[in-house]
Amino acid sequence: MNDAIEFSSTVSAMTRGGILVVTIDNAPVNATSADVRSGLEKALVHAEATADVAGVVITGAGKTFIGGADIREFGKPAIEPTLPAVIEKIEKLSKPVVAALNGAALGGGLEVALACHYRVASSTAQVGLPEVKLGIVPGAGGTQRLPRLIGIPAALDLIISGRSAKTDEALSLGIIDEIAKADLVETAISAAQKLSGKQLRRTGELSIATNEAAEIERAAARILGRARGQKAPAEAVRLITSSNRPLAEGLADERATFLTLRDSREAAALRYVFFAERESSRVEGLEGIEPRPVKTIGICGLGLMGSGIAVAALAAGYTVIGLDQTVEIAEKGRECIVGLLERNLASGRLDQDGFEAQKARLSVTASDADLAPCDLVIEAVFDDLDIKIDLFLRLDKVIRPDAVLATNTSYLNPDEIAAATAYPERVLGMHFFSPAHVMRLLEIVRCARTAPDVLATGLAVAKTFKKLPVVTGVTEGFIGNRIFSAYRREAEFLLEDGALPHEIDAALEDYGFPMGLFAVYDMAGLEIAWARRKRQAAARDPATRYVGIADTLCEMGRFGQKAGRGWYAYPDGKRTIDPDVTAIIETARAQKGITPRAFPKSEIQERMLKAMAAEGEALLAEGIAARPSDIDLVMINGYGFPAHKGGPMFART
Ligand code: 3HC
Prior knowledge:
Helix 2 runs parallel beside helix 3, helix 5 (about 150-160) runs antiparallel to helix 9 (about 230-240) and helix 13 runs antiparallel to helix 14. Helix 1 links the parallel strand 3 (about 20-25) and strand 4 (about 55-60). By secondary structure, the chain is an alpha/beta fold. It has 26 helices and 19 strands. 3-hydroxybutanoyl-coenzyme A binds near residues 31, 72, 108 and 140.
């Protein structure tokens, strides 16, 4: 051991057993910023030139190996050395370079590791090339070296999904060579010592298997079919499937593609979404506020929503007590929850031990008193104010005064529920999206009297549920459903003005929505919204424009797919334009004296976006949403707005 050498302010090294152990320390995630690249380059030059150094180990400080290129540098003037240049130096070094993956090796981080001659990982490490999620392709050799290491089909899967692989999978795929059983860096040092003086395995020199053409073609077609107009996945497919060519040629193509995509609108949108997700949990007034401790969660109402919430809570490690009206109904709820856990077991998302452990943490009851140990109770009962108030009054009597109460209402006013309780400051809204164990979005509703630590508790619990929490103030429908209403209203105006449902849906699907609005309606069923419209009818201002076409469909029993007809017809289950619906729309137009006109796709898209953005502006002005990016996250994660367009607020810029 000798003194540390500082190669830059973020890269330092010690020589141990003749091996230069280089540590990258660039909090928070050891991104390969300019200072890291220059430090690494200097370390490599030093290793090559120093006779006493027999090899190099590269590792990261903290819990990440390297989180990738520094995304904050994108869009700024390039600073030498570039990452590909540093990576080339690693691969070409005459002495062995071993990557010691102490944590996540993502994007440029994995590309650094791929160029090393051997890769050792700690059991908690993970590897991945998530660039396509940022609207780019790997830009430092990922599309060329990964196929050389693991074959084109496996590389396609990893790069296009952008997912991370844990160490067991990384080892079986051949991305890493060893999982350290003892100290990671010691293991890496001894690997470097063993490789010293031997023929080095350089990933860039490996040849690619060529007998997988049919599999590759199938995988590429599947991927492109799902790309919804995004450029990055298509370019990644092209680069990976053509990687069987001289390395330098492939790398040059990859770099040029990376640079073009990096400056695209799609990449700017996805980068914006990346930072928006991290920004959303920074909430004004919560700085330094500790959440209340939560170990046991009560869930009232074990229907589909309550069951989904229970599954998310069990997966996060909580003890769950489910409450429903009778022992029989509660038992049905338990069966539903266990059924969902069984599905996770069957799909491999849960192993047998995990399944047993989660089941053991679940109990159900029909007695309020059994909720006494709960630190948080989430209600997911029927969306009716009297029912919810009655439940909360009962809960007031049995749970501790410091336990938190959350309502999962989508349209009711949670302030009215809170006001009826003994401790309104402990009440907040947690608006889950269905299915609650799958959908990432969770609107956290800050009521007029919600205490800061109660709000912080909602956010902290949401994070443990692996949800994306977005804080909203109280308004009818909160952020998401309010914008959705504006979106729906505009679509109905368009219907009256001359567009047909399939034209509007085609414009939306072309924009990147997975499904058009009217197709979604048919899938979800039209009757719930109809019932709400009927409830609201008396309060409606007769001077505001109201489109009654949906009501006419409902009056005819056209409730959507389940009924075999709605906005479309479904002969043999296939969505088909229905001339009867066209006639209904034409009659409605005629009754109002509207002369229909044709709408090009672009105009439909523009009007829908404008309507959403205008409602978003109103939410900001009213203080319901804290920032435009929160609105965009809600629309992307709850309503199918394409992430690569950044959300309605980003898209208007
Ligand atoms: N560049 C710049 N900042 C980054 C970053 C990156 N690559 N990755 C994370 N950060 C920042 C986040 O914005 C956040 O900043 P904040 O505290 O100011 O909000 C901070 O690091 C911590 O991030 P997380 O909250 O996400 O921390 P976690 O511990 O939950 O997760 C992680 C760590 C798994 C590394 C996660 O941050 C992540 O997935 N990062 C992005 C990885 C990625 O996409 N890499 C590819 C980059 S593009 C590339 O490498 C191109 C190459 O091919 C040339």
